[in-house]
Each structure stands twice: as structure tokens, then as C-alpha cells.
UniProtKB/TrEMBL annotation:
Keywords: Heme, Iron, Metal-binding, Monooxygenase, Oxidoreductase. It comes from Streptomyces pristinaespiralis (strain ATCC 25486 / DSM 40338 / CBS 914.69 / JCM 4507 / KCC S-0507 / NBRC 13074 / NRRL 2958 / 5647). It comes from the Bacteria. InterPro entries: Cyt_P450, Cyt_P450_E_grp-I, Cyt_P450_sf. SUPFAM superfamilies: Cytochrome P450. Residues 456-465, 471-489 have a biased composition (Basic and acidic residues). Coiled coil: none annotated. Its cofactor is heme. GO terms for molecular function: heme binding; iron ion binding; monooxygenase activity; oxidoreductase activity, acting on paired donors, with incorporation or reduction of molecular oxygen. GO terms for biological process: sterol metabolic process. This is Fatty acid beta-hydroxylating cytochrome P450. Heme binds at C361. Belongs to the cytochrome P450 family.
Length: 543
């Protein structure tokens, strides 16, 4: 190893602190060239661009078996998971997932169960003054996938299981309370599923024909999976499905920010819903980057990559690169209509390459089917959005709207109604409604919170949420409170750019999601932009 590689500063802490913005910022500074760094004490190189995707997913170039760190395995994927395999062993295990998750009839069946759970939930929401969409979506999707997979829902009719599945995803990329909750959640669910698998193997008949049964009896080249590994793989079916709750929260965010998209979903057909699902997956941050290890000495764009080097694929930057996506900061589902690029390596929120032979997620069809089924129903749900923090912090991985998208009764209505009209059938409880609204933070308080967190480096919440890293709220703080240019550069925003998302209808404030990229994003701009009701950007004078 060259001396300069040994002496290169380790970027693990900056990556944890800066989240989604870390790698795109390095790529921007390099002019798009490969970026050399160190991560977790290992030499690393970051790749970006269309040609980076097939290079990264070629198993003759990159392997996964030693790329995933222990904390990620102990929370997100599990020890012995398919994600840790390569070559024939990976393809043999992957065939199990493909058979279960790529079968059109099975995917439709799961989506149908989710629709039934949604309808049941909406009827129950009608008697509540307020719900939090993220949590409720995770519960109803968990119930649907557990029933579909033959897995008992568990305590509290699936709510405890949903909390554990969400915790595993929420805590994989951080330290502290969120990470500890993720480890505990995995330990509980692995033990529960291991017991079920041992029961199936003992009886040979229970849950016959289900995904749980298929995994329990699956044989790799070395024989029957041990019970622990089988439990891990069952979780790798139901956990990613429950994670669709993140995309549901983003879908609600998009509908609220750009009401025209909500109307298109209400009035459009399946093709419109599918295009909307793809654009949600492209536009909103979910996976920051992916990692693998060079299996031999390689060369990419003239850069030598030594065997054993950690290779990173910039996913978030890829989805916001104007060289790949025209107007990447425009939320525009129409880009996916008429045979758009949804199935190609252009769209990689769940990986690239071939699903059957590579590491692309086999559950991608399930994700799209669930969004395609549930997003139009969400669009038809009459609801109000109480004052709340709708900002999406880039420092938090995985991120989501800060307050989880609380929704309540629409103005003048007495209950939530899924039919498309306000239902006056239940008398409003004014005291509880006022309490619900009071839980939302005012814009001035949020701005003070952002500045305070920046000044003192404090986490935003008990669970480690770092609101200070939010490019939207930070830009708002700069614009309205006059944070200086040096602070703005540290905060990762452009001069005078955009504002926090507060719950106003589209067009009331400039939206950072629809604006030019922040300085710690893909491309810097010196002018601010505002979003119209379609989500398109229009230039306005600098603040």
C-alpha cells in the first residue's frame, strides 16, 4: 500500500455526521472524477456516473462478502444473509428470494392484502382526531406482509413487530440509542422466527406453501440452512417490505408540497401511479451509497483500484445528477411514463444490475406494487396537515420528514374519510384537536432550534435525529436570520437558497427539495428557486 494511502485521513466520522451530502459533496469537488478516501480504516474509492453502475455490479470486479461492517449486519441484514454472499453461493440463495418476490401473482397478492389493511385502517382512523402516517403505514404494511408470508403478526396485532422492523432500518447507520434499539429488535425477531422455523421443520406441514415454509426448507449447496440463517432470511423478506413506510411518508410529503400530483393520482390510472412511485424513489433520499470490495487489481476511468479496496457507489448523488436526469431537482413523475428508465441502471434506489444474478433487490417489484396500490388511496384520503416540521434532514440516515407526517381532520370536517369527501358524521372534539395542532412547532422555534443545534453541535432528538443537518431548515435559517457565508458553507446550503418545508401548500415557500442543490449536494447554484404547483422550478431574485 502506498504511503499516501496510509496517511490519508479517515472519513468515517464525516460520513456519519454529514449523511447523504457527504459523498456527493466529495464528487462535486472532484469534478466528477473518482474520489479516494478512507472509510472504517480501509482505503476507499467512490465512483459516480452511468458507467459506474455496471462496473460496480460486475462480480468480476466487486464482491460483497467482506464489505458490510458488523454493525450493519447486526441491525439491518443479519449474519449469514444473502447480502454477504457472492458467486454461485449468492445465486443459489438469491433464487429463493426471486421465486418468492418476483412472482407476479405473489406480488399482486401482497399488494391486495395491503389494500385491505389500508381500508381497515382508514375506517379506524375515522374515529381518531390525528394519526402519524409513517407509523400507521408501517403497521398496516407489516400486517399485510406477515399474513402473506405466513408469519404470525406477533404482539399487539403486529404493532410490536412493526416497531422492531422499523427499528432495524432506522438504526443501522448511526450510534447511540437508535442503534441499540435496532440490535435489540433484531435479536427479538430472530429468536421468534427461529422458533417458528424449528417448529415447521419438526412438523413438516405447518405454514405449507408460505414464504416462511419455503425459507425454512430451503437448501443451499451445503444443505438445509441452519435455523438462525433461515430466520435471518425470513426477516430479509418482511423487513424491507415494512420499510416501504419510508416511501409512503415521502409520497405524502410530495402530495402535500405539490397538490397537482395528488390530483393526478386521484384522477389518473395505474400508469400514473407507477410513474409517481418511481419518482418518489428517485427524488427522495433513502440509500446514500453502497459499498463493495475490489476482488482484484482494477482500473476505472484511468484510475487504478488495488485489490481489497473498498469501492463506493454514490446512489443519492446519482439520482440528482443533471448529466443523468434532466432537471433532477424537479419532482416530475412524467419522466417515467411512456417506457421511461425505471427498469434500467438509471434508477437504482434498490440497487443495479440483474436481479437474478446480481445484488439488485428482488423486492423492488413489491415496493413499486405497494406504492402503486396505496399512493392513490392516500391521495383520495381527505385529511388536514396540522402545523409540524416537514423538513427532511440529510444528516439522518435513513431520513424521513421530522414529525412523521401527522394528519388530522380536514378543516370543517369531523373525521378522517377515505372516500374523497369530508365526513361530518362524528362530532369534533375541539380540545383534542387543539392539542394535536399544538404538537407542531412554529417556524420561528424551528429556526432557533436549527441555529442552536448548529452552534452547539447538539443532536435534535433523543433518538439521535440531527435536524441541524437538514439542508431545508438550514437554508431557511440562513435566509431569515442572516447566518453568514462561512456558516452557510458549513451548514451545506447555497447563498440565499430555499427554505424549510413547513406544511404550507406548494408555492408559498421555496422548497429545498425542488431547488438547486446545496453546496453539500450535487451542484451549487447562487440563485434561489421557487416551486410551482407541479413541482417545477422558476427563477426568482436572490434573497
Amino acid at each position: 500500500m502506498e504511503l499516501r494511502e496510509i496517511l490519508r485521513p479517515d472519513a468515517t466520522l464525516p460520513a456519519l455526521l454529514e449523511g447523504y451530502a457527504w459523498l456527493p459533496d466529495l464528487v462535486r469537488r472532484s469534478g466528477g472524477a473518482p474520489v479516494r478516501t478512507r472509510l472504517m480504516g480501509r482505503p476507499a474509492i467512490a465512483l459516480h456516473g452511468l458507467d459506474a453502475v455496471p462496473f460496480f455490479y460486475d462480480e468480476q470486479h466487486i464482491a460483497r462478502r467482506s464489505a458490510l461492517p458488523g454493525p450493519v449486519l447486526d441491525t439491518l441484514f443479519g449474519r449469514g444473509a444473502v447480502h454477504t454472499l457472492d458467486g454461485p453461493a449468492h445465486r443459489a440463495r438469491k433464487a429463493l428470494f426471486v421465486s418468492l418476490l418476483k412472482d407476479p401473482e405473489g406480488v399482486d397478492g401482497l399488494a391486495g392484502r395491503a389494500v385491505k389493511e389500508w381500508e381497515t385502517a382508514v375506517a379506524e382512523w375515522a374515529h381518531r382526531p390525528r394519526i402519524e402516517l409513517f407509523t400507521e403505514a408501517s403497521v398496516l404494511i407489516t400486517r399485510a406482509v406477515c399474513d402473506w408470508a405466513g408469519v404470525p403478526r406477533g404482539e399487539d396485532d403486529g404493532r410490536a413487530t412493526a416497531r422492531d422492523l422499523v427499528a432495524m432500518v432506522d438504526g443501522f447507520a448511526t450510534a447511540g440509542p437508535r442503534h441499540r434499539r435496532a440490535r435489540s429488535a433484531r435479536t427479538r425477531q430472530e429468536a421468534r422466527l427461529r422458533a417458528l422455523i424449528e417448529d415447521i421443520r419438526g412438523s413438516g406441514t405447518e405454514h405449507s406453501g408460505s414464504a416462511l415454509h419455503a425459507v425454512a426448507l430451503h437448501r443451499d449447496d451445503d444443505g438445509l440452512l441452519d435455523a438462525h440463517t433461515a430466520a435471518v432470511e425470513v426477516l430479509n423478506i418482511i423487513r424491507p417490505t415494512a420499510a416501504v413506510a419510508w416511501f409512503m411518508a415521502f409520497a405524502a410529503h410530495a402530495m402535500h408540497r405539490w397538490p397537482r400530483q395528488r390530483e393526478l393520482l386521484r384522477e389518473g390510472g395505474p400508469a400514473d401511479a407507477e410513474a409517481f412511485a418511481h419518482e418518489v424513489r428517485r427524488f427522495y433520499p433513502f440509500v446514500p451509497f453502497l459499498g463493495g470490495v475490489a476482488v482484484r487489481d482494477l482500473e476505472w476511468r484511468g484510475e487504478r483500484i488495488a485489490e481489497g479496496t473498498l469501492v463506493l457507489l454514490d446512489v443519492y448523488g446519482h439520482h440528482h445528477d443533471p448529466a443523468i436526469w434532466p432537471d433532477p431537482y424537479v419532482f416530475e413523475p412524467a419522466r417515467f411514463t411512456d417506457g421511461g428508465p425505471a427498469g434500467s441502471d438509471l434508477l437504482i434506489p434498490q440497487g443495479g444490475g440483474d436481479t437474478a444474478t446480481g445484488h439488485r433487490c428482488p423486492g423492488e417489484d413489491v415496493t413499486v406494487a405497494l406504492l402503486k396500490a396505496l399512493a392513490p388511496r392516500l391521495a383520495r384520503l381527505e385529511h388536514g396537515v396540522p402545523p409540524q416540521d416537514l423538513s427532511i434532514p440529510l444528516r439522518r440516515v435513513p431520513t424521513r420528514p421530522v414529525d412523521g407526517l401527522p394528519a388530522g381532520r380536514p378543516a370543517g370536517a369531523h373525521r378522517l374519510n377515505g372516500s374523497g369527501a369530508a365526513d361530518p358524521g362524528v362530532r369534533s372534539d375541539a380540545r383534542r384537536a387543539r392539542s394535536s395542532v399544538a404538537l407542531g412547532r412554529g417556524a420561528g422555534q424551528r429556526r432557533r432550534d436549527v441555529l442552536q443545534r448548529f452552534a452547539f453541535g447538539r443532536d435534535g432528538e433523543e433518538d439521535g435525529h440531527q435536524a441541524g443537518g437538514d439542508h431545508q431548515a438550514r437554508a431557511d435559517a440562513e435566509r431569515e436570520d442572516g447566518v453568514g457565508d462561512d456558516a452557510a458553507r458549513h451548514l451545506g446550503v447555497g447563498d440565499g437558497e430555499s427554505t424549510a418545508l413547513r406544511g404550507e401548500p406548494a408555492g408559498d415557500v421555496a422548497d429545498a427539495g425542488q431547488r438547486a442543490a446545496p453546496r453539500r449536494g450535487v451542484l451549487p447554484h447562487s440563485q434561489s428557486r421557487s416551486a410551482d404547483s407541479r413541482g417545477r422550478l422558476s427563477r426568482r431574485s436572490r434573497v
